[in-house]
From TrEMBL:
<dbReference type="Pfam" id="PF03098">
    <property type="entry name" value="An_peroxidase"/>
</dbReference>
<dbReference type="InterPro" id="IPR019791">
    <property type="entry name" value="Haem_peroxidase_animal"/>
</dbReference>
<keyword id="KW-0444">Lipid biosynthesis</keyword>
<keyword id="KW-0925">Oxylipin biosynthesis</keyword>
<dbReference type="InterPro" id="IPR037120">
    <property type="entry name" value="Haem_peroxidase_sf_animal"/>
</dbReference>
<dbReference type="GO" id="GO:0020037">
    <property type="term" value="F:heme binding"/>
</dbReference>
<keyword id="KW-0275">Fatty acid biosynthesis</keyword>
<keyword id="KW-0611">Plant defense</keyword>
<dbReference type="GO" id="GO:0031408">
    <property type="term" value="P:oxylipin biosynthetic process"/>
</dbReference>
<dbReference type="GO" id="GO:0006633">
    <property type="term" value="P:fatty acid biosynthetic process"/>
</dbReference>
<dbReference type="InterPro" id="IPR050783">
    <property type="entry name" value="Oxylipin_biosynth_metab"/>
</dbReference>
<dbReference type="GO" id="GO:0016702">
    <property type="term" value="F:oxidoreductase activity, acting on single donors with incorporation of molecular oxygen, incorporation of two atoms of oxygen"/>
</dbReference>
<keyword id="KW-0349">Heme</keyword>
<keyword id="KW-0560">Oxidoreductase</keyword>
<dbReference type="GO" id="GO:0004601">
    <property type="term" value="F:peroxidase activity"/>
</dbReference>
<keyword id="KW-0443">Lipid metabolism</keyword>
<keyword id="KW-0408">Iron</keyword>
Length: 968
């Protein structure tokens, strides 16, 4: 189930001993199973996308072409396939019924991936789409040579790579006689050249006179496997000699022919006999007519017509854009064999790449070589001088090289993939609105994989899960919490303000949320230490266990346990769902036309006293401030768009404003919040480089050119890149963002004009249904000011908020620190030492290696038997962080991987971060705005309080009770 990117890099060998029977009587899967074969074929599909890019570059084309069959000769939609009335009884399957007739789309083409002259040596192809009904179609793909040059998918891709861009005779000769033998071996290269020569050397006078073979087999219901072919019907008119000067003579000949007469073919099938005479897995094997005579089953008629009318040309362009795929069929007619199974991944990837739905980023060879060299070098250097103590330039290179390592080794695919592949319907055309608007639930961000990152998609993994039920309660999580986490005295983070605490919860609510069972339906029970009791509900009886609702797990396959997969009930994308909602009904309920409902400038009240917004759990004053501020920001963007673009309708205004606000939030988090909590020049430069591009000095530019060419620009100027695993946020990411110590227990609300105290509150008095009474009474400006001048808690041991140690939520009374420990264990996140090792840090051997504080070391020894038992969250809190860091270096390693990934995977923050989608005003708004400007747009009276040379998340300038600012 869990495949690291490293495991994906294995290249499939040719057909041989690694293939074993796994698919019933006909098919054998590479690597021994459909799951292993799928991973191999996904890699081959990516290599075909790189072939497309290489062809585009060599041809100096504006757009990506098909990897094969780039030049269409004929494209019509009015052909007819009619089955014979005397169709053999055993072949009467599915849509194949005696006398049945169906409309057909036909595309005839040259086979090369380069648009070359028709008189150049080449194979020719035929693609049919038989339209049976509104939801059923069957694609039949054929070439005018009976067998493939390649026995299997691996050979097919290697040949394509070798021949990519070989658009001159000299380049073709070099590719065939020099490069091909080096890749597949001399013997196989000779066979492949022989097949290619046999298929391409014959001069073609008319595509109406050609025979076309499927090469691979398909299932024909209970009749078993067949190969199919088209051949000209008897009595077809001859053709003039092939032209040597007209680059488009094949089209001209068909156009002339169709003005005079129909073009008619017979569709024939050859039945499967046995594995020796009618091979399924070997695409280069001939099915001889003497072993399996062809049987005519239907007639294909392309009716007489004029191909040069405007309507015909329009249809031809439409057909040329279609993505034909042999898997566009039903299970009764599913494709069979190695090449066909590979085509499932290849056709989907290639067509999505050509249409701009999927992207691939070639890695220059120098980046791969230099990156691995620097990885080894910095591993040695880091033993002496850690990355954060290196000179700035070397530190940036160290971080970049290490991020490449993390991308290779720490992106684990948890999606449940279809293996073996199954037939499917023709993919619907992507709705035009979805190309330029975020969906409500996160679907269609990746247009080639609509469910990727959407609500309900599984959390990924950065480390392989370590699911240990025997250690769920070892050591007792209540004991761990009491001795190591509970706050005795508030430990402030003096470089930050409490807005930083509100901000990160505001963000986490956008990113992650695990579904819980209703309380009492399926609970976790934690045994309590001797002599301790707990009330599990407000006013409930004391009990000897602590009880709270369990998370709902995902079982990816029947009987697959344990449930180490969990669904995210938020979308994984950075899409502002905490403001806008994660489904259409919630989003629409929050709107008033294009704007968000804000009666009197406040969020609308809910029946339970908590405001109505996109995500309203765990509500407190810090969240109220953030939600109100960015709801107002949305409305301000709407007003600006209406003023600038008077033609925009309200729906377009809403969705454009949502794009702008969501991107602005991502920018603020990247270049303001994170540098505030990781307060070093190196991190500030690195994160600004993510958004804006790296510093323009020659040494940094040279280093990035050597290590990662794609880092030479900001991520917003690149294309989406998932780095080998479908995009998702991860369980490990959730773990490092457990930052509850940031929340203070006590709050003082002051007047921003005079500094006079308006009230002192405990957390429970500014939380839940009590929040809005305080927020509305003091006003947004005073709330912002009061949080801005106060410090949050430090992310360390013994600093978990007291208010969260007996916290009422959904009818339960919970100690949230215990819940955090238990959730991490039960989700299979490795314990701290394994977590470190999985992120390429040395394992700790002694408790003294975790922290330099002797009191912390003594406390760890008192709770844990060995360093390997230390809980992940405890170890992260106990670590001595680098100078200026608000959290540990180990947690930071997840951050440097996932921070850029959240931007890099999102097309609305990469390829579609452009004026055609955001409008010029929208991009300018994002460029000119930050957290300070958002605050001042809605509370201009706070200008004097904001820090002058630091971010809005640094401590603000307080007003003294006498109305004066402090000196300096």
């Amino acid at each position: 189930m869990y495949e690291t990117k490293q495991s994906r890099s294995a290249v499939a060998p040719p057909v041989g001993e690694r293939e074993v029977a796994a698919g019933g009587p006909y098919e054998r899967f590479v690597g021994g199973s459909p799951q292993v074969e799928r991973v191999i074929f996904e890699r081959l599909a990516r290599e075909l996308m790189l072939v497309q890019l290489k062809v585009k570059k060599r041809a100096k084309a504006a757009d990506v072409e098909r990897a094969f069959h780039a030049k269409g000769i004929l494209g019509v939609e009015n052909a007819t396939l009619r089955f014979r009335r005397d169709l053999p009884e055993d072949l009467q399957v599915g849509f194949a019924r005696p006398g049945a007739a169906y409309p057909v789309t036909v595309r005839l083409s040259n086979a090369s991936g380069v648009r070359q002259a028709d008189f150049e040596p080449d194979l020719r192809g035929a693609a049919l789409r038989v339209r049976v009904g509104p939801t059923e179609a069957h694609d039949l793909l054929m070439t005018n040579y009976p067998v493939s040059h390649a026995r299997n998918a691996w050979e097919f891709v290697q040949f394509a790579k070798v021949m990519a861009g070989a658009n001159t005779r000299l380049r073709k000769a070099f590719a065939l006689f020099v490069r091909l033998p080096l890749v597949v071996g001399a013997r196989q290269a000779r066979r492949m050249r022989r097949n290619v020569r046999a298929g391409t050397r014959r001069r073609v006078g008319s595509l109406a006179l050609e025979r076309y073979w499927s090469r691979g087999a398909i299932l024909w219901g209970d009749a078993g496997p067949v190969r199919y072919r088209l051949r000209p019907a008897p009595g077809v008119l001859g053709a003039p000699a092939p032209s040597r000067t007209d680059a488009d003579y094949l089209r001209h000949e068909l156009a002339t022919r169709l003005v005079r007469t129909d073009v008619v073919f017979e569709l024939c099938v050859q039945r499967y006999v046995d594995g020796a005479r009618t091979a399924i897995e070997n695409g280069a094997a001939v099915w001889r007519e003497s072993d399996s005579p062809p049987v005519v089953v239907a007639t294909l008629t392309i009716p007489r017509q004029d191909l040069d009318t405007a309507d015909a040309r329009a249809v031809e362009l439409l057909v040329d854009e279609m993505a034909f795929d042999p898997w566009n069929t039903t299970e009764e007619f599913r494709p069979l064999g190695n090449l066909n199974r590979a085509r499932r991944a290849a056709y989907e990837a290639g067509s999505a790449h050509r249409r701009g739905y999927r992207f691939v980023t070639p890695v220059p060879r120098r980046n791969a070589v230099v990156g691995r060299f620097l990885d080894g070098l910095f591993r040695v250097v880091d033993r002496v001088v850690p990355w954060h103590r290196l000179p700035r330039g070397l530190g940036l290179l160290n971080l970049e090289a290490f991020r490449q390592v993390l991308r290779r080794r720490n992106l684990i695919d948890t999606e449940v993939h279809e293996a073996p592949p199954q037939a499917h319907r023709v993919s619907p055309v992507v709705d035009a609105d979805l190309r330029t608007r975020r969906s409500y639930d996160g679907t269609w961000n990746d247009l080639s994989a609509p469910r990727m990152g959407a609500v309900g998609a599984a959390f990924g993994r950065n480390l392989a899960p370590d699911y240990r039920p025997d250690l769920f309660d070892v050591p007792n999580p209540v004991l761990v919490s009491r001795r190591l986490l509970h706050r005795d005295a508030f430990i402030p983070a003096t470089s930050l303000n409490v807005l930083a605490a509100g901000w990160i919860q505001f963000q986490v609510h956008d990113w992650v949320n695990h579904r819980r069972f209703p309380a009492g339906l399926q609970d976790v029970e934690v045994p309590l230490p001797r002599g301790m009791t707990w009330r599990n509900t407000p006013g409930g009886a004391p009990e000897r266990v602590m009880r709270f609702a369990d998370n709902e797990g995902m079982w990816p396959a029947e009987g697959a346990e344990p449930p180490v997969l969990f669904a995210n009930t938020a979308s994984h994308w950075w899409d502002g769902s905490e403001v806008y909602g994660g489904d259409a009904s919630v989003a629409l309920s929050l709107r008033d036309g294009a704007q968000l409902r804000l009666p009197g400038g406040h969020l609308p009240a809910g029946a339970d006293g908590v405001p109505l917004t996109g995500f309203r759990d765990n509500w407190w004053l810090g969240l109220s401030v953030m939600h109100t501020l960015f709801a107002r920001e949305h409305n301000a963007v709407c007003e600006a768009l209406r003023s600038e673009y008077r033609h925009m309708d309200e729906e377009a205004v809403y969705h454009t404003a949502r794009l702008v606000v969501s991107a602005l939030i991502a920018k603020i988090h990247t270049v303001e919040w994170t540098p505030a909590i990781l307060r070093t020049e190196l991190i500030d430069l690195s994160l600004r480089a993510n958004w804006e591009g790296p510093p323009q000095n020659w040494l940094t530019q040279l280093g990035l050119w050597l290590v990662d060419e794609h880092a030479l620009t900001g991520i917003t100027e690149t294309v989406p890149d998932h780095h080998g695993a479908p995009y998702s946020l991860t369980e490990d990411f959730v773990t490092v963002y457990r930052m509850h110590p940031l929340i203070p227990d006590d709050y003082e609300i002051a007047d921003h004009r005079t500094g006079h105290l308006l009230g002192s509150y405990g957390f429970r008095e500014v939380q839940g249904m009590a929040t809005e009474e305080v927020a509305r009474r003091v006003g947004l400006a005073n709330a912002l000011y009061s949080l801005g001048i106060a410090h949050p808690g430090a992310i360390t041991l013994h600093n978990y908020p007291q208010a969260l140690l007996e916290f009422e939520r959904d009818g339960e009374l919970i100690d949230l620190s215990v819940v955090d420990l238990v959730r991490t264990r039960r989700r299979g996140v490795p314990r701290y030492n394994d977590f470190r090792a999985g992120l390429h840090k040395p394992r700790v051997r002694r408790f003294e290696d975790v922290s330099s504080d002797p009191d912390v070391v003594a406390q760890l020894k008192d709770v844990y038997r060995t360093v390997d038992e230390i809980d992940t969250m405890v170890g992260l809190f106990a670590e001595n962080p680098p100078a200026g860091f608000g959290f540990s270096d180990t947690a930071f390693r997840i951050f440097i991987l996932m921070a850029s990934r959240r931007l890099q995977s999102d097309r609305f923050l990469t390829v579609d971060f452009r004026p055609e989608v955001y409008t010029p005003l929208g991009l300018d708004w994002i460029d000119r705005s930050g957290m300070k400007s958002v605050i001042l747009r809605h509370c201009p009276e706070l200008a004097a309080s904001l820090p002058r040379k630091a971010s809005a998340f640094a401590p603000w300038v307080p007003m003294m009770p006498d109305g004066q600012r402090p000196a300096g």
